[in-house]
Amino acid sequence: MKSTFLSRSELIGFAILALIIFIALPMALDSFRLNLFGKYLTYAFVAVGLVLCWGAGGILSLGQGVFFGLGGYCMAMFLKLEASTPENTSIQSTPGIPDFMDWNQLTELPIWWQPFHSLAFSLFAVVAVPVFFAFIIGVAMFKRRVGGVYFAIITQAFAAILTILIIGQQGYTGGVNGITDLRTLLGWDIRTDEAKEVLYFVNGALLFVVLFIAQFVRKSKLGRLLIAMRDQEDRVRFSGYDVAGFKIFIFCLGAAFAGIGGAMFTLQVGFMSPTLVGIVPSIEMVIFCAVGGRLSILGAVYGALLVNWAKTSFSESFPELWLLGLGGLFIAVVMLFPNGLAGIWSQHIEPRLKALFAPRGAPKSASQSTPAE
To answer: Where does the sequence pass through the membrane (predicted)?
Structure first.
């Protein structure tokens, strides 16, 4: 049977998510809480990429924080340079460079910072830099048929290495504090409540662009090949397909999604630091995907929203126990509902809705009928 881009149930799912993001949340939340959910949505970019890499392709990456952080740092560098004009930094020993460079006794802007004076280049780098590093890692690993738990551990090591590098090069990266005090985007003050609300809607619109790209990949021949590689990689290879090439592509696509999410995080929150790059945030990003359902791109969005909302709620109410509460939520969902929130919908809610709205006297579907004895 020929597959359509969006089935009826998928179209309803996209419509419900759009109503929640663009209507329900803005109407129900104040500016502060809406900005929090805007931050949560930036993590959804990573979770959607993980659905393609891990859920469809069987590539478990524990280093997606690397790509999230690289995209965020590329945007933060542009914003920091815009905030570091000679007028704004006149009290420094060297006006015209970021404050953390002046504190570390640098007297001129490093040459690799120079292109980030341009917004166009910075937007290009938000995607290109994570994709470049993902390509290097992918070629090095997949061409040598490194996969499974070995690949997961290696990506985790890359996350640790990048964190150490960022912290160690304090004069060039801001060190453990990261890049802070980001003020304007082409003269537009991004610190106001009105700006945060506009960025929230931009964030939501970009997320839907990413969701449609992911849906296109899932419905294409590439999506079917990814599932085949996940289940029977050797058969796909013996059929003449370049398995390593497909893996590299989907890994790079997930990195691009993560980079966009990182850039939107920087704009939404107003800083970028190495705490968002390392092993712990990378594992949390996998949890978002697992809780939402690693086979569902919409489930990944709900997983990112639910886990981060729970994290915020637990930390506010039980500051000493929130990690236990977050871990308990993850364990409960995985043990009771292995397919995550998407599995709850498809197995328990959707069949009841279909039965409720089905015409009376309509024959039962194959899934509802009792198997013959």
So the answer is: 12-29, 41-63, 119-142, 149-168, 198-217, 238-265, 285-309, 321-345
Question: Is the Cβ–Cβ distance between 260 and 25 less than 8 Å?
Answer: no
Q: In the chain, what are the domain boundaries?
A: 11-275
What's the number of CA atoms in the CB half-sphere (13 Å) around residue 82?
19
Q: What share of the chain is helix, strand, coil (3-state, %, to 5)?
A: 75, 0, 25
CA quadruple 333, 335, 336, 342: dihedral sign = positive
Residue 272's DSSP bridge partners are: 179
**Global confidence as pTM:** 0.89
Give the per-residue SS3 of 275-330.
HHCCHHHHHHHHHHHHHHCCCCHHHHHHHHHHHHHHHHHHHHHCCCCHHHHHHHHH
- pLDDT per residue, tens digit, the chain (373 aa), is 455 777 777 888 899 999 999 999 999 999 899 999 999 999 999 999 999 999 888 899 999 999 999 999 999 999 999 998 888 888 888 888 998 898 888 888 999 999 999 999 999 999 999 999 999 999 999 999 888 888 999 999 999 999 999 998 888 998 889 999 898 898 899 999 999 999 999 999 999 999 999 999 999 999 899 999 888 888 888 888 889 999 999 999 999 999 999 999 999 998 999 988 888 888 888 888 888 888 889 999 999 998 898 888 877 777 777 777 777 777 777 677 777 777 676 666 666 666 666 665 555 544 444 343 3
Question: Are the C-beta atoms of residues 200 and 38 closer than 8 Å to each other?
Answer: yes
Q: The tokens of 48 are what?
A: 């959607």
Q: Is the dihedral of CA 276, 193, 80, 125 positive or negative?
A: positive
User: Token pair of 361, please?
Assistant: 């006297």
- CA Rg, the chain, in Å? 22
3-state class (DSSP) for residue 113: helix
